[in-house]
Amino acid sequence: MPVIEVMDLRKSYAGRPAVDGVSFAVEEGEIFGVLGPNGAGKTTTVECVEGLRVPDSGVVRVTGLDPVADHARVARVLGAQLQESELQAKLTVREALELYAAFYPKPLDWGPLAERLGLTAKLTTRFGKLSGGQKQRLFIALALIGDPRIVVLDELTTGLDPRARRDTWELIEDVRTRGVTVLLVTHFMEEAQRLCDRIAVIDKGRVAALDTPAGLIRRSAGSTVISFTPSAPLDEAELNALPALASVEHRDGRITLAGTDETVNAVITLLARHRVTARQLRVSDATLDDAFLDLTGDATKEAAV
Ligand SMILES: Nc1ncnc2c1ncn2[C@@H]1O[C@H](COP(=O)(O)OP(=O)(O)OP(=O)(O)O)[C@@H](O)[C@H]1O
């Protein structure tokens, strides 16, 4: 049985749909990503899973329980990252960890958790004096302290420097190794690609695609990218006629084509036919970034970056 089930979830604000028929199921032990442009309905969706918002219609189940009607029981199995305003400025890091540990029947030992999140040197620092990244790390610790079966992390590494981000990814991988299910809302493609087993791409309140990161990349139009600097100009019409071509870009004499393996073979044949040499030829797989822009359409491109 899935540990989280969302079926035809709908939620409007002042008559405007923010979530418009979202369905997905998260299996035990999975890292499930929710990805989408700003305002797509991601936070509303996960807050319905946490029982913090009441859906207009649809069904949400967490370990078979209704997060609104069975809020107390759901809170025992689900750890959620807090919003900044929820902690007192005068509370020290140690006090916050001890306080939250006391809420749960079998909390984790907060010492190693604080160590893993680089908070040991900050135990006596008051919350109000922490940097944005340190606060973020404390919220992650507090989400995990109750040793939950499921953890919901919204914008996990926003505000963290690259080092802290990588340490946090390792921590999340450790958490999953212990069998914890992770529901992760993120804007970072690299994070989603590295951590998530499956991703629901949400766009305009609906699920635009649901697949593994590799599956999302494969289904986007230009899943292979070839770039090179030709030794002589190539005919634009011939380039545009290449099979399975998704896009052509020219920059500083360099040509970048997105397509499939078929496009790559055809361009190599084209180059040979015209006796044109391709300097600095590179062939690479498209990234999740490319797939995301493709799946969420042109209108949302600007909001996504
Ligand atoms: N409490 C609220 N009252 C009115 N409108 C809201 C409320 N919360 C969210 N919205 C609107 O609902 C839509 C979806 O918001 P939501 O926060 O769920 O999106 P999101 O995908 O999490 O966005 P972001 O990536 O920017 O955090 C947005 O248009 C937002 O303005």
From TrEMBL:
CDD domains: ABC_DR_subfamily_A (cd03230). GO terms for molecular function: ATP binding. Its main location: membrane. It is found in: Cell membrane. InterPro entries: AAA+_ATPase (IPR003593), ABC_transporter-like_ATP-bd (IPR003439), ABC_transporter-like_CS (IPR017871), ABC_transporter_ATP-binding (IPR050763), P-loop_NTPase (IPR027417). SUPFAM superfamilies: P-loop containing nucleoside triphosphate hydrolases (SSF52540). Gene3D superfamilies: P-loop containing nucleotide triphosphate hydrolases (3.40.50.300). It is a peripheral membrane protein. Residues 4-229 form the ABC transporter domain. PROSITE patterns: ABC_TRANSPORTER_1, ABC_TRANSPORTER_2. Keywords: Antibiotic resistance, ATP-binding, Nucleotide-binding, Transport. It holds the Pfam family ABC_tran. PANTHER family: ABC TRANSPORTER ATP-BINDING PROTEIN. This is ATP-binding cassette domain-containing protein. It comes from Streptomyces vulcanius. The lineage of its organism: Bacteria, Bacillati, Actinomycetota, Actinomycetes, Kitasatosporales.
